[in-house]
Amino acid sequence: MRTGRPKLHQVTLNESQREQLEAFLRSRSLPHGLSRRAAIVLHAAEGMPNTMIAERLGMTETTVRKWCKRFIDEGIDGLYDLPGAGRPRTYGDDEVARLMQQALETRPQDGTHWSVRSFADANGLSKSTVQRYFKLFGIQPHRSKSFKLSTDPFFVEKVRDIVGLYLNPPEQALVLCVDEKSQVQALERSQPVLPMGLGYVEGVTHDYFRHGTTTLFAALDVANGTVLGQCKARHRHQEFLSFLRHIEKNVPEDLDIHLIMDNYATHKHPKVRAWFAQRPRFHVHFTPTHASWWCIGRINALFTQVQQL
Fold this sequence. Notes:
This protein is an alpha/beta fold. It has three domains: 15-79, Arc Repressor Mutant, subunit A (Orthogonal Bundle), CATH 1.10.10; 93-137; 155-189 and 207-308, Ribonuclease H-like superfamily/Ribonuclease H (Nucleotidyltransferase, domain 5, 2-Layer Sandwich), CATH 3.30.420. 42% of the residues lie in helices and 16% in strands. It contains eleven helices and five strands; from the N terminus they run ααααααααβββαβαβα. A five-stranded mixed sheet has the order 3-2-1-4-5. Strand 2 and strand 3 (227-232) form a beta hairpin. Helix 1 (15-26) packs across helix 2 (32-45), helix 2 runs antiparallel to helix 3 and helix 8 packs across helix 11 (293-308). The chain is extended.
């Protein structure tokens, strides 16, 4: 008598099926669920275990098994939703795809972006229908996100250098990420803070006195998370040199110091360069031009994930 869960057959793809599934992944107009099912099948065809597929795509292992079996039994047609009970859909897949393509690729004549109301009026739809489709496909015409592509010709080399310091720091050395936060407001509350108690939170008065601004210089030890910091009245190379002397004083003399910094002009001032030249234990690593710390952090995380596979 057979017991336990039945084992599914290995998912195999021919060239035509692979091309169609990859097209599903690239499409920006198909339903999101269909793209995720295509991803399941493609991962399964590469021999990836169901548990890993579920973890990578953020779903349950039961869902992964379901769509793998549907594909094995029915092919690509099995990845589509079966018709359900109730009133049939008002808009078919082709009409929905056309509407979403319009939302992605066009703008209203009298505005900079579509709103739910303007898109509904332009297409003779109800606002609730447009809102439902926008939410379903994750379309947010009213929002934008800024970005900046690095033009540094040594982008790859600099990223490898910095990520290498993060993942494999040198022995007998300290790796510090150095940066400044300028225009920090020095505020003093006009009344004392009321302490937290049973049943009520800490109380802070809403008004305050201004005491000008300050610049926070900080050096983060990437190995243990400790920070060396100083506040300065101004943000010039003189203050930066003073902070470098503070680092030199607080790091044991038998350790080399690797500083990871951005390309702010203060960091490359001639007097700062001369100061580094006189101290061979300091090693400076600049981030790529127009590359944010977030970019370096994301690349570092990707390298870490690759190492764990």
